[in-house]
Amino acid sequence: MRYLTNVIGLGLIVVAVSACGAQNQAAEPAAGPGSGTLSTVPPSPTVPPSSAPTSAPSVPGSLPGQPGAPRQEVPEGSTKLPDKQLDASALPADYPREVYTSNGGTILNIRGQEGGCGHATAEAAQQDGNRVTVNLTELKGQTGQMCTMDIRHPVISVALSSPLGERTVVLKQMR
């Protein structure tokens, strides 16, 4: 009889712990910093205001070909920039060299490079009558965070102050 009581008690404990565990897993993604709940969802990297790109804000739900969050595919209706208009000589040999225009030439869609917890960004640093210089940067994740060892090539959109026309696009990688 005593054995049966122990088995039933142990069974109730297992059921109670399982129910609590399932409830905590459902609440985990909503947990934020300082909530006291351990979350396996990686936090978004924090970008200091001074280094935040101004020409390509992350805008959820932006229109195709408009500046917004990086995407894996080139927006529909984009036109590949001719090689003669692209100066990518400052990029490392293994860096992608793809630039497309959209929205009448006022948006550049550039294939960037990021890895692990990094996030690729681009900024039109200088625009004049002959050229547009775009700085490509990879923002690193928080320190102490576990990251995968993969390389991704997202498409990053950059808004120009006027249509590109015949100007040359100069790509530079900033560290």
TrEMBL record:
Keyword Signal tagged: yes
Positions of the UniProt region annotated as Disordered: 26-91
Keywords: Signal
Signal sequence, renumbered to the chain: 1-21
Composition-biased stretches (Low complexity): 52-62
UniProt keyword Signal present: yes
Ranges of compositional bias, category Pro residues: 42-51
Protein name (record): Lipoprotein
